[in-house]
Amino acid sequence: MAATRISPLLTDLYQLTMLAGYHAEGMAETPAVFDLFFRDIPYRGGYAVFAGLDPALRALEGLRFEADEIDHLASLNIFTADFLDWLAGFSFEGDVDAPEEGTPVFGNQPLLTVRAPLAQAQLVETLLLNIINFQTLVATKAARISRAAGGAPVLEFGLRRAQGPDGAMSVARAACIGGVRSTSNVLAGKVFDLPVKGTHAHSWVMAFDSELEAFRAYARSFPDHCILLVDTVDTLKSGLPNAITVARELRQQGHELFGIRLDSGDLAWLSRQARAMLDEAGFPEVRIVASNELDEEVIHTIRDEGGCIDIYGVGTRLATCAGEGGGALGGVYKLVAIDGRPKMKLTSDISKATLPGPKTVWRLYRPDGSYLQDVITVAGEEPQQGETVYDPVNPAHFRMLDEPFEARPLARTRMQGGRRTNPSPTLSQLADRCQTELDRLPEGTLRMTNPHRYKVSISDSLHQLREQLRRSMMR
Amino acid sequence: MAATRISPLLTDLYQLTMLAGYHAEGMAETPAVFDLFFRDIPYRGGYAVFAGLDPALRALEGLRFEADEIDHLASLNIFTADFLDWLAGFSFEGDVDAPEEGTPVFGNQPLLTVRAPLAQAQLVETLLLNIINFQTLVATKAARISRAAGGAPVLEFGLRRAQGPDGAMSVARAACIGGVRSTSNVLAGKVFDLPVKGTHAHSWVMAFDSELEAFRAYARSFPDHCILLVDTVDTLKSGLPNAITVARELRQQGHELFGIRLDSGDLAWLSRQARAMLDEAGFPEVRIVASNELDEEVIHTIRDEGGCIDIYGVGTRLATCAGEGGGALGGVYKLVAIDGRPKMKLTSDISKATLPGPKTVWRLYRPDGSYLQDVITVAGEEPQQGETVYDPVNPAHFRMLDEPFEARPLARTRMQGGRRTNPSPTLSQLADRCQTELDRLPEGTLRMTNPHRYKVSISDSLHQLREQLRRSMMR
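ok -> C-alpha cells follow
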C-alpha cells in the first residue's frame, strides 16, 4: 500500500549483482547521472501526464536493508560477505530533478534525472520505473477520459480489475491527478483524501423479492445519497418506473432522489429515454450515472450521439490502461554521465540512442501563455530566439526558433542529498495543475486520435555533443 | 505486499452502503450463496489457469476493521453509529469452495462459491475479484508463454512495468503457477521461495571505458554465474567477439561462461549467428538468453524460424497481460441463492444471465485420463452417461453424454467457518499440477490461436431450474 515501507529487495536481481560488481571494482562511489524517460507517448496520443513522483521520492527516502533482508541475500550464495556488509549500510543520498506531477510531458525528455554515486543511482532503477511508469500511464489515461467527458464528473471504480491491491491504490491516486477525481475505493479515499462514491450492485436488487422493494429499502437507508441501479430486470420497463415511484415517495418525505445508474445496453439511447422519462415525471434534477466498459472513446461516442449522462463511472479500462498503445509505458532509465564524462548508448537504430550528459528541458511559452515547443539543451545552456534546433530522433529534421517565447525549465530539484526539498502537494492541487497545463497545449495535440505531434527538439550544442560521442565510439 | 494485512477498506464504497442497508433491513445475517466466475476466456485462448486462491483465503481470514478505519468511515457522514458498531465486530465466518490453483478452468463455471451471511458474502466481493481476476489472468498468460517456449525455461522480469509494487509481486506468484517458474524480482523470490535470476544492464557496459573491460569485470565478480549482455555496441561485431574472449579467459581460470543475452534486433536470426559463433569458438554449452518484448506469439515465431534460444526472459507483456482479449479478466461475483431460495439475474441477453442456486462443477475424465468435458449440475446431483446436457449460454444447443467417463467435482471446500481447511501448497506443487492438468486437455484446446472450444454444459435439472425461474420472473 501507499503508506507501507517498500523493501529494497523489490528490485531486479541484476541491480544487486551490478552493485556487487561496482563495489568489487571500486566504482560504487563514482558520481553518476541517470535519466528516466519514455520514447513513445501512450495510447497513440498527443501527450502524457507525469505522475508518481511523490511516492517515488518517499520510497527513495526510506530505502534501507533490514537484517533479515541481508540474511536472505546471503542465503542466495552469490554475494560476498564484504559486499553484504556494505549493503547493510546502504541509503540513497542522491539528488533528483523532475517536473511537478500533473505536468504534460513528451517522448525523449528526461522525467527524472538522478545524480548519485553509481551504486545508489543503479539500485533504484527498478523501483523508480515501477512507480513512474504505471502512475504516468494511469494519469494519462485519466486525462484522456476526463477530457472526453467534457465537464462531467468521472468516477474511478477499477478496484476489482486492477492489478492487485496496490495496483488499485496507484490507479486511484494517479487517476485523480489526470482529472478522474473521485473513486469507489474506500481505502484510497482514506489514504489519499479523495472523495469516495458509490451506488449499489445487482445483488442488492436480487436479495429482495422485487426490484421496487429493493429500491425502497435503499432509499430508506440513504434518502439523500440514493442512486438506483435500474438494469437488473429491464431498464425502461421496470427499473425506470420503479425508480420514479421511489423518487415520488422520497419527495413526499422531503428528500430528492440523487440519481439512477445505467450499467448495460446502448447507453447513448437508454440515457436519452431515461432523461425523457425522468423529466416527464417531474424529476429533471435526477442525475443519470453510466458505467460498463467505458473509456475515452466510448464516452466520446455517447456524447456525440446526444447521450444524456451526468456522471461517468470508469473501471476496467482505466485500471488496466487499456487501448492501443496502452497497457504499459515503456519508460527506461539510462546512464548519461559517469565521473563527469557524458555517456550514451550507441546503437545502429538512432531511435534507441540516448541523449548524453546532464541536460535541461526547457518549455517555451508563447506570449499568450500557450506552449510553443520544448527544447532539450546541455545543462546550463538556455535556448535563444533565432537558434537552430534538431529533432532528437532524426537530426536531418531541424528548424529555427523564430517565434518569440519565454523559456522555463520543466524540472526542479525535488530531492537533495536523499531528502525531499518540498512538502507533498495535495492531489487536488496536482489535478488543478494538470487541467490548467493541458489547456495550454495546442488544440490539435489534445485530439484523441491522430493528434498533432508537439515538438520536442534538442539544441545545437546537445546535437554536437551527441555527434562527437558517436564519432569517438565508432572509432 | 503478499504478507501484509489487507484493509477491509480496500473495497468499493457500495459494498459498505449495501451492508448498511442490509443491516438496517435486518437482512445482514440471511444465509446467501455467491458465485465468482468469468464468461470469456482471456487472450481468445482455449483455457484459463485458476490462481489467487491462497492469497484470497488469507485475506478473508484476516478481515477485521481497526479502530481508525471505523473512525474514517464515521467521518464520511453517511453511516449510522449503530451500523459502525456492528462493523467493528465484523469478521468473515463463511465457507468457500474452489478448485486447486493451477487447475484449467473455463467460462461460466463457478471458480469460487461463497456461502456466508449476506453481509459477509457481499463485503468480500471486491477483494476476491481484485485478487482472483488478476492472478488468474497472469497464470493463464504464463501458461501460454511457457507452452510456446517448449521445454525452455522462461524467466519473469516484469517488475519495472508491473502495476505498482504489489502488482509485480502478484505477477511473480501467478506466473510461477502457470509455468514461468523463476523471476528477477528479489523480494518475490524471498516471499514466495522462487528461484531468482539476472544478468546485467546496458548501464554496466556504459560505466566502463570499453565493452571488453566491462565483460571482464563482470566475470571477475561472477565467474560461475556470468551472463553477458552483448548488444550495447554491436551484437555480432563487438558483443559476441568480446564475450568469446572472456569465455576463453574464464576457461583458463577453471570457470565456464554461463551465457550471453540478446536484447534487441531480430532474435531468431541473431541467435542463430550467435550459436554458430559460440560453437565455432568451442563454447557449445554457453546458453543464449533472449529478451525484448517477448510473449507467446513472438516466442512461437522465433522457434518456428529455427532460433537457437535456451532461456527466454519475459517482462512487459507478461506483467501487463498484454494481447487481444488480455488486460483484464472479466470475473464477476453474483448472488445465486438467498435464504435457501435460488436467484438469478434476469436479462434479455441470456449470455449475461447467471446460473441459479448452489451448483457442482463436474470434470468428466475419459478412461485414458484426458478431459472429456465439464458439466455443471444442481449441487448434489451427479452427471450420468446417456444424460442430455445443454450449452449454458444457448440452451438450443444440447448433446448427449454418450462416451464413458469418470466424473470428479472440480471444487473442494477450502474454507469452513472462516478458517482455511488446508495448508498453503507450495508454488512449485501448483506449477507441477498446472502442467500435468494442461496435458490432459484436448490438443486443439491448447492451440494458441483459434483453439477448439472445450465443452462446458449444464445438466438437465439445472436447465429446468433456470427456465422455471425465468418464467416466474417474467410474470
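DSSP finds 17 helices and 21 strands in chain A.
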